[in-house]
Write a structure and sequence with these properties.
The chain has 326 residues and is α+β, with helices and mostly antiparallel strands. It contains 13 helices and nine strands. The strands form three sheets. Strands 1-2-7-4 form a four-stranded antiparallel β-sheet, with helices on both faces. The chain has a three-stranded mixed β-sheet with strand order 8-3-9. Strands 5-6 form a two-stranded antiparallel sheet. It folds into two domains: 224 residues, no CATH class; 80 residues, no CATH class. α11 packs parallel to α13 and α12 packs antiparallel against α13. The structure holds iron/sulfur cluster (SF4) (2 copies).
């Protein structure tokens, strides 16, 4: 099988675009990540495909385009559609893996190497000031999945340039809009301030970040929402409407109602992210941001949790709500 046959098969499995890139070590990214190893986004990232999987001849870079989530109505929480798409793309990659294996290839889907760099190597776009991959077809709203393959790469492609090019206007809108002040004209220079790095991680969120999360249960889409490049040729895909969630669904004293809501969320974004204690930890912050005293009984219960992030966030939320009452 060659690259164009692989692309056709990837499209059949639901991906929007696919291309191969070489599997050399990600040396530069390894050095950068070493200095930011504490960040959740970077956990479990690997850098040396050939050392990990000696049979690898290329990485398939699979793009899954998605539509933005609606902004939440009153009482609802924000769940970025990236997470729905990411879950769907993960399963599509498994399907593609089975099809390639049946065709006699050796492959491994959902491998964790620096995805944006791989997409640059595959010539699929550029990295904008938002530090997102920006593609000419879909803007930055793409999930990138990597698959290690034994498919020979016929020739190396000219790599997409970093940041400024015809698919990033350098307009600075993403930098000005970022609620965490995480972006500069050089990209995500303060990853420790990016809200996405703390969503449903189950860790205690730094205090200065908590109120900036506003009503977001998972994801921050602000830098993408303001980016004019989202308008370019975005193909409308047939997709199931993602479910919406109320804060009340999670801030409930009824354990079975909480379990039902958590299971519904897990169906949409995957069980790994939607673990009950992670959901409680994030929901506690959103309750604090809501200022709604109706949540105090549940928060007081959570303040005695054995799970440190749930306990700490609930205590913070109680203090915040009680201060607002005065
Ligand atoms: S995801 Fe949100 S916090 Fe992170 S860089 Fe974009 S706008 Fe800023
Ligand atoms: S908002 Fe402007 S500067 Fe930021 S990524 Fe989009 S085009 Fe580039």
């Amino acid at each position: 099988m060659d690259e164009s046959a692989l692309s056709a098969l990837a499209l059949e499995c639901g991906f929007s675009k696919a291309a191969l890139c070489h599997a050399d070590a990600f040396t530069q990214e390894k050095d950068i990540v070493r200095s930011q190893a504490q960040l959740a986004e970077r956990r479990q990232l690997k850098f040396e495909p050939l050392a990990d999987l000696p049979w690898v001849k290329s990485l398939a870079v699979l793009l899954w385009a998605y539509r933005p989530a609606e902004l939440p109505a009153a009482g609802s929480v924000f769940v970025d559609s990236y997470y729905f798409a990411s879950n769907a793309a993960y399963h599509a990659a498994k399907k593609l893996e089975d099809a390639l294996t049946a065709a006699g290839h050796r492959v491994q889907s959902n491998v964790s190497y620096p995805a944006r760099k791989a997409a640059l190597r595959a010539g699929l776009g550029v990295v904008g000031c938002s530090s997102m991959l920006i593609t000419p077809e879909y803007g930055s709203r793409v999930v990138i999945i990597l698959m290690a393959t034994d498919i020979e790469l016929m020739s190396r492609k000219p790599e997409g340039s970093a940041r400024i090019s015809q698919t990033c206007l350098a307009c600075g809108r993403c930098i000005r809009a970022c609620p965490g002040s995480a972006l500069t004209e050089h990209g995500l220079t303060h990853p420790e301030k990016c809200l996405r790095n703390y969503m449903l991680e189950g860790t205690i969120v730094p205090e200065e970040i908590r109120s900036r999360m506003s009503r977001s249960l998972v994801g921050c889409d602000v830098c993408q929402r303001v980016c004019p490049m989202q308008l370019c040729n975005h193909e409308e895909k047939e997709e199931a409407e993602p479910a919406s969630f109320l804060l009340d669904d999670f801030l409930t004293a009824d354990p079975s109602a909480f379990s039902r809501a958590a299971a519904r969320l897990a169906e949409q974004i995957g069980r790994n992210a939607a673990r009950p204690q992670r959901i409680r930890a994030q929901a506690a912050l959103l309750a604090g941001n809501s200022g709604n005293p109706a949540y105090l009984p549940v928060l007081k219960n959570w303040a005695e949790s054995d799970f440190p992030a749930v306990r700490e966030h609930a205590l913070w939320a109680i203090k915040r709500i009680e201060q607002e009452k005065k």
